[in-house]
Amino acid sequence: MNIPKTSIHGEWSSRLAFILAATGSAVGLGNIWKFPYITGEYGGGAFVIVYLLCIALIGFPVMMAEVLLGKRGRSSPINSMRHLAQEARRSQWWQVLGWSGVVAGFLILSFYSVIAGWALDYIPRLAQGTFTAVNDLNTTKEVTDFVATRFGELVGDPLRLIMWHTLFLVITIIMVAGGVQGGLERAVRWMMPALFLVLLILLGYAMSTPQFMEGVQFMFNVDFHKLFYPKGEFSGEGVLAAMGLAFFSLSLGMGSIMVYGAYLPKHASIAQTTAAVVAADTLVAILAGLIIFPIVFSNGLSPEDGGPGLVFKILPIAFGQMPYGTLFGTLFFVLLALAAWSSAISLIEPAVAWLVETGKFSRISATIGCGIAAWLVGFATVFSFNIWSDVKPLSMFSAFQDKTFFNLIDYLTSNIMLPLGGLFIAIFVAWLMKNQIVTEELEISSKNLGYRFWRFLLRYVTPLGVGLVFLNAIGVFS
Ligand code: TRP
Asked: Hey, which end of the chain has fewer CB within 10 Å, N or C?
Protein backbone atom coordinates (compact mmCIF):
# COMPACT_ATOMS: atom_id res chain seq x y z
CA MET A 1 0.00 0.00 0.00
CA ASN A 2 1.39 3.35 -0.94
CA ILE A 3 -0.86 5.92 0.67
CA PRO A 4 1.29 8.79 1.84
CA LYS A 5 1.23 9.39 5.60
CA THR A 6 1.22 13.13 5.22
CA SER A 7 0.28 15.39 2.36
CA ILE A 8 3.16 16.72 0.28
CA HIS A 9 1.39 20.07 0.22
CA GLY A 10 1.69 20.70 3.95
CA GLU A 11 -0.80 20.63 6.79
CA TRP A 12 -3.05 22.95 8.74
CA SER A 13 -1.29 24.16 11.85
CA SER A 14 -4.16 23.02 14.09
CA ARG A 15 -7.67 21.71 14.15
CA LEU A 16 -8.93 25.24 14.54
CA ALA A 17 -7.09 26.24 11.40
CA PHE A 18 -8.90 23.50 9.51
CA ILE A 19 -12.26 24.65 10.88
CA LEU A 20 -11.50 28.19 9.77
CA ALA A 21 -10.41 27.11 6.32
CA ALA A 22 -13.35 24.77 5.80
CA THR A 23 -15.73 27.43 7.08
CA GLY A 24 -14.00 29.88 4.77
CA SER A 25 -14.67 27.50 1.92
CA ALA A 26 -18.29 26.90 2.88
CA VAL A 27 -19.30 30.45 3.73
CA GLY A 28 -19.33 32.56 0.62
CA LEU A 29 -21.52 33.75 -2.20
CA GLY A 30 -23.60 30.60 -1.73
CA ASN A 31 -24.88 31.88 1.60
CA ILE A 32 -25.17 35.58 0.96
CA TRP A 33 -25.87 35.84 -2.76
CA LYS A 34 -27.40 32.52 -3.76
CA PHE A 35 -29.42 31.45 -0.76
CA PRO A 36 -31.61 34.57 -0.63
CA TYR A 37 -32.39 34.78 -4.33
CA ILE A 38 -33.15 31.10 -4.79
CA THR A 39 -35.23 31.05 -1.62
CA GLY A 40 -37.08 34.03 -3.07
CA GLU A 41 -37.62 32.31 -6.41
CA TYR A 42 -39.12 29.22 -4.81
CA GLY A 43 -41.42 31.02 -2.42
CA GLY A 44 -39.69 30.92 0.96
CA GLY A 45 -40.66 28.71 3.92
CA ALA A 46 -41.09 25.28 2.36
CA PHE A 47 -37.90 25.72 0.36
CA VAL A 48 -36.00 26.69 3.51
CA ILE A 49 -37.27 23.60 5.35
CA VAL A 50 -36.21 21.29 2.53
CA TYR A 51 -32.85 23.07 2.41
CA LEU A 52 -32.34 22.58 6.15
CA LEU A 53 -33.37 18.91 5.92
CA CYS A 54 -30.86 18.40 3.10
CA ILE A 55 -28.15 20.04 5.21
CA ALA A 56 -28.89 17.89 8.26
CA LEU A 57 -29.66 14.52 6.69
CA ILE A 58 -27.41 14.57 3.63
CA GLY A 59 -24.96 17.46 3.81
CA PHE A 60 -23.66 16.84 7.28
CA PRO A 61 -22.97 13.10 6.90
CA VAL A 62 -21.55 13.56 3.41
CA MET A 63 -19.20 16.28 4.63
CA MET A 64 -17.86 13.94 7.30
CA ALA A 65 -17.39 11.27 4.66
CA GLU A 66 -15.63 13.68 2.33
CA VAL A 67 -13.25 14.90 5.03
CA LEU A 68 -12.56 11.29 5.92
CA LEU A 69 -11.66 10.37 2.35
CA GLY A 70 -9.19 13.23 2.23
CA LYS A 71 -7.70 12.51 5.61
CA ARG A 72 -7.15 8.87 4.66
CA GLY A 73 -5.99 9.55 1.11
CA ARG A 74 -3.68 12.46 1.99
CA SER A 75 -3.58 13.70 -1.60
CA SER A 76 -5.54 15.56 -4.25
CA PRO A 77 -9.02 14.05 -4.72
CA ILE A 78 -7.90 12.25 -7.88
CA ASN A 79 -4.98 10.54 -6.19
CA SER A 80 -6.78 10.06 -2.89
CA MET A 81 -9.51 8.13 -4.68
CA ARG A 82 -6.87 6.13 -6.53
CA HIS A 83 -5.15 5.16 -3.26
CA LEU A 84 -8.38 4.42 -1.47
CA ALA A 85 -9.84 2.34 -4.29
CA GLN A 86 -6.65 0.29 -4.21
CA GLU A 87 -6.79 -0.08 -0.46
CA ALA A 88 -10.42 -1.19 -0.60
CA ARG A 89 -9.65 -3.39 -3.65
CA ARG A 90 -12.20 -1.59 -5.78
CA SER A 91 -12.18 -0.44 -9.37
CA GLN A 92 -9.76 2.27 -10.47
CA TRP A 93 -12.78 3.98 -11.98
CA TRP A 94 -13.33 5.58 -8.59
CA GLN A 95 -10.78 8.15 -9.69
CA VAL A 96 -13.50 9.56 -11.92
CA LEU A 97 -14.97 11.02 -8.74
CA GLY A 98 -11.83 13.11 -8.43
CA TRP A 99 -11.86 14.08 -12.10
CA SER A 100 -15.47 15.16 -12.16
CA GLY A 101 -14.73 17.21 -9.09
CA VAL A 102 -11.92 19.01 -10.87
CA VAL A 103 -14.20 19.79 -13.82
CA ALA A 104 -17.01 20.96 -11.51
CA GLY A 105 -14.51 23.13 -9.66
CA PHE A 106 -13.49 24.95 -12.86
CA LEU A 107 -17.07 25.43 -13.94
CA ILE A 108 -18.13 26.78 -10.56
CA LEU A 109 -15.10 29.03 -10.24
CA SER A 110 -15.75 30.43 -13.71
CA PHE A 111 -19.04 32.00 -12.66
CA TYR A 112 -18.16 32.43 -9.00
CA SER A 113 -15.43 34.82 -9.96
CA VAL A 114 -17.75 36.91 -12.12
CA ILE A 115 -20.30 37.28 -9.32
CA ALA A 116 -17.54 38.02 -6.81
CA GLY A 117 -16.52 40.70 -9.30
CA TRP A 118 -19.90 42.35 -8.72
CA ALA A 119 -19.02 42.60 -5.05
CA LEU A 120 -15.66 44.17 -5.96
CA ASP A 121 -17.40 46.71 -8.17
CA TYR A 122 -19.66 47.68 -5.28
CA ILE A 123 -16.76 48.47 -2.94
CA PRO A 124 -15.76 51.80 -4.53
CA ARG A 125 -19.39 52.67 -5.20
CA LEU A 126 -20.30 52.25 -1.57
CA ALA A 127 -17.19 54.06 -0.45
CA GLN A 128 -18.14 57.04 -2.64
CA GLY A 129 -21.56 57.16 -1.02
CA THR A 130 -23.33 56.58 -4.34
CA PHE A 131 -26.34 55.07 -2.63
CA THR A 132 -26.93 57.84 -0.11
CA ALA A 133 -28.71 59.46 -3.06
CA VAL A 134 -31.74 57.30 -2.23
CA ASN A 135 -32.51 59.67 0.64
CA ASP A 136 -33.34 62.45 -1.83
CA LEU A 137 -35.86 60.34 -3.71
CA ASN A 138 -39.54 60.53 -2.89
CA THR A 139 -41.11 57.15 -3.50
CA THR A 140 -39.96 53.60 -2.83
CA LYS A 141 -40.40 53.00 -6.56
CA GLU A 142 -37.85 55.70 -7.32
CA VAL A 143 -35.53 54.18 -4.75
CA THR A 144 -35.74 50.65 -6.09
CA ASP A 145 -35.40 51.90 -9.66
CA PHE A 146 -32.33 53.92 -8.78
CA VAL A 147 -30.59 50.93 -7.23
CA ALA A 148 -31.69 48.54 -9.99
CA THR A 149 -30.35 50.95 -12.60
CA ARG A 150 -26.95 51.04 -10.91
CA PHE A 151 -26.92 47.24 -10.97
CA GLY A 152 -27.98 47.20 -14.61
CA GLU A 153 -25.13 49.54 -15.55
CA LEU A 154 -22.70 47.04 -14.13
CA VAL A 155 -23.96 43.79 -15.60
CA GLY A 156 -24.73 45.45 -18.91
CA ASP A 157 -21.07 46.32 -19.40
CA PRO A 158 -18.98 43.29 -20.40
CA LEU A 159 -15.65 45.11 -20.13
CA ARG A 160 -16.35 46.24 -16.62
CA LEU A 161 -17.35 42.70 -15.63
CA ILE A 162 -14.24 41.26 -17.22
CA MET A 163 -12.03 43.71 -15.40
CA TRP A 164 -13.37 42.66 -11.98
CA HIS A 165 -13.46 38.98 -12.94
CA THR A 166 -9.80 39.25 -13.88
CA LEU A 167 -8.84 41.05 -10.71
CA PHE A 168 -10.68 38.51 -8.59
CA LEU A 169 -8.90 35.58 -10.22
CA VAL A 170 -5.47 37.21 -10.10
CA ILE A 171 -5.76 37.65 -6.36
CA THR A 172 -7.14 34.12 -6.00
CA ILE A 173 -4.06 32.83 -7.82
CA ILE A 174 -1.74 34.79 -5.54
CA MET A 175 -3.46 33.38 -2.45
CA VAL A 176 -3.40 29.78 -3.67
CA ALA A 177 0.18 29.99 -4.88
CA GLY A 178 1.11 30.92 -1.32
CA GLY A 179 0.39 27.38 -0.18
CA VAL A 180 -1.56 25.85 2.64
CA GLN A 181 -0.39 27.74 5.69
CA GLY A 182 1.11 30.82 4.13
CA GLY A 183 -1.76 31.64 1.80
CA LEU A 184 -4.97 29.90 2.69
CA GLU A 185 -4.81 29.87 6.43
CA ARG A 186 -3.73 33.41 7.02
CA ALA A 187 -6.59 34.82 5.00
CA VAL A 188 -9.46 33.25 6.90
CA ARG A 189 -8.38 33.82 10.48
CA TRP A 190 -9.88 37.21 10.96
CA MET A 191 -12.37 37.48 8.10
CA MET A 192 -15.04 35.15 9.32
CA PRO A 193 -15.60 36.91 12.65
CA ALA A 194 -15.58 40.28 10.91
CA LEU A 195 -18.14 39.19 8.34
CA PHE A 196 -20.33 37.87 11.08
CA LEU A 197 -20.20 41.20 12.91
CA VAL A 198 -21.25 43.20 9.88
CA LEU A 199 -24.11 40.78 9.28
CA LEU A 200 -25.30 41.38 12.84
CA ILE A 201 -25.26 45.13 12.25
CA LEU A 202 -27.33 44.63 9.12
CA LEU A 203 -29.69 42.38 11.03
CA GLY A 204 -30.19 45.25 13.46
CA TYR A 205 -31.19 47.47 10.54
CA ALA A 206 -33.55 44.83 9.13
CA MET A 207 -35.18 44.47 12.54
CA SER A 208 -35.81 48.18 12.64
CA THR A 209 -37.96 48.03 9.50
CA PRO A 210 -41.70 47.55 10.18
CA GLN A 211 -41.64 44.64 7.73
CA PHE A 212 -39.23 42.53 9.76
CA MET A 213 -41.89 40.01 10.79
CA GLU A 214 -43.12 39.78 7.21
CA GLY A 215 -39.62 38.74 6.20
CA VAL A 216 -39.42 36.20 9.00
CA GLN A 217 -42.78 34.80 7.97
CA PHE A 218 -41.69 34.52 4.38
CA MET A 219 -38.70 32.47 5.42
CA PHE A 220 -40.36 30.21 7.93
CA ASN A 221 -44.01 29.99 6.97
CA VAL A 222 -44.07 26.56 5.35
CA ASP A 223 -46.29 26.35 2.29
CA PHE A 224 -45.45 23.32 0.18
CA HIS A 225 -47.85 24.37 -2.50
CA LYS A 226 -45.55 27.27 -3.35
CA LEU A 227 -42.59 24.92 -3.59
CA PHE A 228 -44.21 22.30 -5.77
CA TYR A 229 -46.39 24.56 -7.88
CA PRO A 230 -44.22 27.62 -8.47
CA LYS A 231 -45.96 28.51 -11.73
CA GLY A 232 -49.24 26.74 -11.21
CA GLU A 233 -48.01 23.45 -12.60
CA PHE A 234 -46.40 20.68 -10.58
CA SER A 235 -42.62 20.81 -10.56
CA GLY A 236 -39.99 18.95 -8.57
CA GLU A 237 -37.41 21.59 -9.48
CA GLY A 238 -37.70 23.42 -6.19
CA VAL A 239 -36.66 20.42 -4.14
CA LEU A 240 -33.75 19.74 -6.48
CA ALA A 241 -32.70 23.37 -6.20
CA ALA A 242 -32.81 23.13 -2.39
CA MET A 243 -30.65 20.03 -2.40
CA GLY A 244 -28.24 21.52 -4.93
CA LEU A 245 -27.96 24.66 -2.85
CA ALA A 246 -27.21 22.59 0.26
CA PHE A 247 -24.30 20.92 -1.55
CA PHE A 248 -23.11 24.19 -3.03
CA SER A 249 -23.26 26.06 0.22
CA LEU A 250 -21.37 23.38 2.14
CA SER A 251 -18.76 23.08 -0.67
CA LEU A 252 -19.59 19.39 -1.01
CA GLY A 253 -19.32 16.85 -3.76
CA MET A 254 -16.37 18.11 -5.78
CA GLY A 255 -13.28 17.62 -3.66
CA SER A 256 -12.84 21.00 -1.96
CA ILE A 257 -13.57 19.51 1.41
CA MET A 258 -11.71 16.32 0.52
CA VAL A 259 -8.51 18.15 -0.30
CA TYR A 260 -8.83 20.25 2.85
CA GLY A 261 -9.27 17.00 4.78
CA ALA A 262 -5.98 15.82 3.31
CA TYR A 263 -4.25 18.69 5.13
CA LEU A 264 -5.85 17.80 8.47
CA PRO A 265 -3.49 16.98 11.33
CA LYS A 266 -3.61 13.30 12.23
CA HIS A 267 -5.69 13.34 15.38
CA ALA A 268 -8.34 15.90 14.65
CA SER A 269 -11.94 14.86 15.30
CA ILE A 270 -13.86 14.74 12.06
CA ALA A 271 -17.34 14.80 13.58
CA GLN A 272 -16.79 17.85 15.76
CA THR A 273 -14.99 19.90 13.15
CA THR A 274 -17.67 19.11 10.58
CA ALA A 275 -20.42 20.07 13.01
CA ALA A 276 -18.79 23.44 13.57
CA VAL A 277 -18.49 24.12 9.85
CA VAL A 278 -22.06 23.10 9.07
CA ALA A 279 -23.44 25.19 11.93
CA ALA A 280 -21.53 28.30 10.88
CA ASP A 281 -22.53 27.91 7.25
CA THR A 282 -26.21 27.44 8.03
CA LEU A 283 -26.24 30.34 10.45
CA VAL A 284 -24.81 32.73 7.86
CA ALA A 285 -27.36 31.69 5.23
CA ILE A 286 -30.28 32.14 7.63
CA LEU A 287 -28.90 35.49 8.75
CA ALA A 288 -28.60 36.62 5.15
CA GLY A 289 -32.24 35.72 4.56
CA LEU A 290 -33.38 37.49 7.71
CA ILE A 291 -31.58 40.59 6.50
CA ILE A 292 -32.65 40.57 2.85
CA PHE A 293 -36.36 39.74 2.96
CA PRO A 294 -37.50 42.43 5.41
CA ILE A 295 -35.74 45.01 3.25
CA VAL A 296 -37.35 43.52 0.14
CA PHE A 297 -40.80 43.88 1.69
CA SER A 298 -40.22 47.28 3.18
CA ASN A 299 -39.50 48.55 -0.33
CA GLY A 300 -42.62 47.07 -1.80
CA LEU A 301 -40.72 44.49 -3.83
CA SER A 302 -41.43 40.82 -4.26
CA PRO A 303 -38.78 38.21 -3.40
CA GLU A 304 -39.61 36.20 -6.53
CA ASP A 305 -38.47 38.93 -8.88
CA GLY A 306 -34.96 39.60 -7.69
CA GLY A 307 -33.04 36.88 -9.50
CA PRO A 308 -29.26 36.76 -9.24
CA GLY A 309 -29.17 40.52 -8.70
CA LEU A 310 -31.29 40.38 -5.54
CA VAL A 311 -28.77 41.25 -2.83
CA PHE A 312 -27.06 43.76 -5.10
CA LYS A 313 -30.36 45.55 -5.62
CA ILE A 314 -31.53 45.32 -2.01
CA LEU A 315 -28.65 45.89 0.37
CA PRO A 316 -27.56 49.21 -1.15
CA ILE A 317 -30.97 50.60 -0.19
CA ALA A 318 -30.28 49.70 3.44
CA PHE A 319 -26.78 51.12 3.30
CA GLY A 320 -28.03 54.27 1.66
CA GLN A 321 -30.50 54.87 4.47
CA MET A 322 -28.85 53.67 7.65
CA PRO A 323 -26.49 55.69 9.86
CA TYR A 324 -22.85 55.07 8.92
CA GLY A 325 -24.17 53.21 5.88
CA THR A 326 -21.24 54.29 3.73
CA LEU A 327 -18.81 52.79 6.20
CA PHE A 328 -20.75 49.59 6.84
CA GLY A 329 -21.64 49.19 3.19
CA THR A 330 -18.04 49.43 2.09
CA LEU A 331 -17.02 47.04 4.82
CA PHE A 332 -19.76 44.62 3.87
CA PHE A 333 -18.71 44.31 0.24
CA VAL A 334 -15.06 44.05 1.22
CA LEU A 335 -15.95 41.18 3.52
CA LEU A 336 -18.20 39.56 0.92
CA ALA A 337 -15.32 39.64 -1.53
CA LEU A 338 -13.02 38.14 1.09
CA ALA A 339 -15.54 35.42 1.85
CA ALA A 340 -15.71 34.72 -1.87
CA TRP A 341 -11.92 34.48 -2.03
CA SER A 342 -11.73 32.01 0.81
CA SER A 343 -14.24 29.89 -1.13
CA ALA A 344 -12.62 30.35 -4.51
CA ILE A 345 -9.28 29.07 -3.28
CA SER A 346 -10.96 25.81 -2.29
CA LEU A 347 -12.47 25.51 -5.76
CA ILE A 348 -9.11 25.32 -7.53
CA GLU A 349 -7.11 23.61 -4.81
CA PRO A 350 -8.08 20.06 -5.95
CA ALA A 351 -6.83 20.71 -9.49
CA VAL A 352 -3.69 22.50 -8.31
CA ALA A 353 -2.84 19.75 -5.82
CA TRP A 354 -3.24 17.14 -8.55
CA LEU A 355 -1.00 19.01 -11.01
CA VAL A 356 1.68 19.37 -8.35
CA GLU A 357 1.46 15.66 -7.53
CA THR A 358 2.15 14.73 -11.15
CA GLY A 359 5.61 16.14 -10.50
CA LYS A 360 5.55 18.20 -13.67
CA PHE A 361 4.44 21.53 -12.22
CA SER A 362 5.43 23.83 -9.42
CA ARG A 363 2.63 25.07 -7.22
CA ILE A 364 2.92 28.48 -8.82
CA SER A 365 2.72 27.36 -12.43
CA ALA A 366 -0.09 24.92 -11.63
CA THR A 367 -2.10 27.69 -9.99
CA ILE A 368 -1.57 30.11 -12.84
CA GLY A 369 -2.61 27.49 -15.39
CA CYS A 370 -5.80 26.63 -13.51
CA GLY A 371 -6.61 30.29 -13.00
CA ILE A 372 -6.31 31.04 -16.70
CA ALA A 373 -8.60 28.12 -17.57
CA ALA A 374 -11.29 29.33 -15.16
CA TRP A 375 -10.82 32.88 -16.44
CA LEU A 376 -11.53 31.85 -20.03
CA VAL A 377 -14.61 29.78 -19.15
CA GLY A 378 -15.82 32.77 -17.15
CA PHE A 379 -16.46 34.76 -20.32
CA ALA A 380 -19.55 32.65 -20.93
CA THR A 381 -20.96 33.95 -17.66
CA VAL A 382 -19.87 37.53 -18.30
CA PHE A 383 -21.73 37.59 -21.62
CA SER A 384 -24.79 35.82 -20.19
CA PHE A 385 -25.75 39.11 -18.56
CA ASN A 386 -25.37 41.29 -21.63
CA ILE A 387 -24.50 40.47 -25.25
CA TRP A 388 -25.56 36.82 -24.89
CA SER A 389 -28.49 37.38 -22.57
CA ASP A 390 -30.78 36.09 -25.32
CA VAL A 391 -28.65 33.08 -26.13
CA LYS A 392 -30.36 30.00 -24.68
CA PRO A 393 -28.12 27.13 -25.82
CA LEU A 394 -30.47 24.32 -24.78
CA SER A 395 -33.75 25.98 -25.65
CA MET A 396 -34.86 22.86 -27.52
CA PHE A 397 -35.47 21.19 -24.15
CA SER A 398 -38.42 22.71 -22.39
CA ALA A 399 -36.75 22.41 -18.97
CA PHE A 400 -33.84 24.57 -20.12
CA GLN A 401 -35.83 26.87 -22.36
CA ASP A 402 -34.88 30.12 -20.74
CA LYS A 403 -31.48 29.26 -19.34
CA THR A 404 -28.46 31.32 -20.36
CA PHE A 405 -24.91 29.92 -20.29
CA PHE A 406 -24.60 31.10 -16.71
CA ASN A 407 -27.88 29.42 -15.73
CA LEU A 408 -26.83 26.19 -17.41
CA ILE A 409 -23.37 26.05 -15.84
CA ASP A 410 -24.88 26.78 -12.45
CA TYR A 411 -27.61 24.16 -12.96
CA LEU A 412 -25.25 21.47 -14.21
CA THR A 413 -22.82 21.91 -11.33
CA SER A 414 -25.10 22.62 -8.35
CA ASN A 415 -28.06 20.48 -9.20
CA ILE A 416 -26.37 17.55 -10.94
CA MET A 417 -22.61 17.22 -10.50
CA LEU A 418 -22.41 18.06 -6.79
CA PRO A 419 -25.27 15.79 -5.64
CA LEU A 420 -23.88 12.97 -7.81
CA GLY A 421 -20.44 13.52 -6.32
CA GLY A 422 -21.93 13.42 -2.84
CA LEU A 423 -23.85 10.26 -3.69
CA PHE A 424 -20.70 8.45 -4.79
CA ILE A 425 -18.77 9.70 -1.76
CA ALA A 426 -21.50 8.27 0.47
CA ILE A 427 -21.53 4.95 -1.34
CA PHE A 428 -17.77 4.61 -1.26
CA VAL A 429 -17.38 5.38 2.42
CA ALA A 430 -20.42 3.55 3.74
CA TRP A 431 -20.54 0.53 1.44
CA LEU A 432 -17.08 -0.06 0.05
CA MET A 433 -14.48 1.04 2.57
CA LYS A 434 -13.62 -1.33 5.38
CA ASN A 435 -15.47 -0.54 8.55
CA GLN A 436 -12.24 -0.85 10.46
CA ILE A 437 -10.53 1.84 8.39
CA VAL A 438 -13.47 4.17 8.70
CA THR A 439 -13.66 3.85 12.47
CA GLU A 440 -9.90 4.22 12.72
CA GLU A 441 -10.02 7.55 10.88
CA LEU A 442 -12.97 8.72 12.97
CA GLU A 443 -11.26 7.45 16.12
CA ILE A 444 -14.52 5.96 17.26
CA SER A 445 -15.84 2.52 18.17
CA SER A 446 -17.99 0.82 15.55
CA LYS A 447 -20.56 0.23 18.29
CA ASN A 448 -20.96 3.93 18.96
CA LEU A 449 -24.57 4.95 18.33
CA GLY A 450 -23.67 8.18 16.64
CA TYR A 451 -21.40 6.25 14.30
CA ARG A 452 -24.13 3.79 13.45
CA PHE A 453 -26.59 6.55 12.77
CA TRP A 454 -24.09 8.34 10.54
CA ARG A 455 -23.48 5.17 8.57
CA PHE A 456 -27.19 4.59 8.24
CA LEU A 457 -27.63 8.11 6.83
CA LEU A 458 -24.83 7.55 4.32
CA ARG A 459 -25.88 4.05 3.34
CA TYR A 460 -29.59 4.63 2.86
CA VAL A 461 -30.74 8.19 3.34
CA THR A 462 -28.23 9.89 1.04
CA PRO A 463 -28.62 7.53 -1.94
CA LEU A 464 -32.39 7.38 -1.59
CA GLY A 465 -32.68 11.09 -0.99
CA VAL A 466 -30.54 12.11 -3.95
CA GLY A 467 -32.19 9.46 -6.14
CA LEU A 468 -35.73 10.48 -5.27
CA VAL A 469 -35.02 14.18 -5.69
CA PHE A 470 -33.56 13.51 -9.15
CA LEU A 471 -36.51 11.36 -10.21
CA ASN A 472 -38.94 13.89 -8.82
CA ALA A 473 -37.24 16.68 -10.74
CA ILE A 474 -37.59 14.89 -14.07
CA GLY A 475 -41.26 14.48 -13.30
CA VAL A 476 -41.48 10.78 -12.49
CA PHE A 477 -43.87 11.37 -9.59
CA SER A 478 -46.08 13.99 -11.15
N1 TRP B 1 -19.52 26.93 -0.63
C2 TRP B 1 -19.07 28.12 -1.29
C3 TRP B 1 -20.15 29.17 -1.14
O4 TRP B 1 -21.14 28.94 -0.51
C5 TRP B 1 -18.67 27.88 -2.71
C6 TRP B 1 -17.79 26.70 -2.87
C7 TRP B 1 -16.49 26.58 -2.50
C8 TRP B 1 -18.17 25.47 -3.40
N9 TRP B 1 -16.03 25.33 -2.76
C10 TRP B 1 -17.05 24.62 -3.30
C11 TRP B 1 -19.37 25.00 -3.93
C12 TRP B 1 -17.15 23.30 -3.73
C13 TRP B 1 -19.43 23.70 -4.35
C14 TRP B 1 -18.34 22.85 -4.24
O15 TRP B 1 -20.05 30.23 -1.65
From this structure: N
Q: 248 with 414: CB under 8 angstroms?
A: yes
Q: 230 near 42, Cβ under 8 Å? A: yes
Q: Using one digit for the tens of pLDDT, what is the confidence trace for 75-123?
A: 999 999 999 999 999 999 999 999 999 999 999 999 999 999 999 999 9
108 lines ligand 1 (CB under 6 A): yes
- Is 282 a pocket residue for ligand 1 (Cβ < 6 Å)? no
Give the start-to-end residue ranges of the domains of the chain: 15-113+157-299+344-473
Pocket residue to mutate for ligand 1, from 108, 257, 349, 352, most atoms within 8 A of Cβ: 108
Of 23, 25, 260, the residue with max ligand 1 atoms within 8 A of its CB, to mutate for a pocket test, comes to: 25
Task: Give the number of the atom of ligand 1 that is nearest the alpha carbon of residue 30.
Answer: 4
Query: Residue 107 in contact with residue 378, Cβ under 8 Å?
Result: no
CA dihedral 112, 116, 118, 122 (to 10 degrees): 170
Closest CA to 41 of 397, 308, 318: 308
For residue range 298-355, list pLDDT tens digits in order: 999 999 988 999 999 999 999 999 999 999 999 999 989 989 999 999 999 999 999 9
Distance 342 CA to ligand 1 centre (A): 10
409 CA distance to ligand 1 middle (Å): 14
Write the residue with the smallest CA distance to atom 6 of ligand 1. Answer: 251
Phi/psi zone of residue 209: left (φ > 0), alpha (ψ -120 to 50 degrees), beta?
beta
Q: What is the CA radius of gyration of the chain?
A: 22
Q: From the CB of 80, is ligand 1 less than 6 Å away?
A: no
Predicted confidence (pLDDT) per residue in 347-383, tens digit: 999 999 999 999 999 999 999 999 999 999 999 999 9
- Closest among 125, 147, 120, 123 to 318, alpha carbons compared: 147
Nearest by Cα to 31 from 249, 218, 199, 193: 249
| Cβ atoms < 10 Å from Cβ of 195 | 25
**CB of 342 closer than 6 angstroms to any ligand 1 atom:** no
CATH 1.10.4160, domain 15-113+157-299+344-473, yes or no: yes
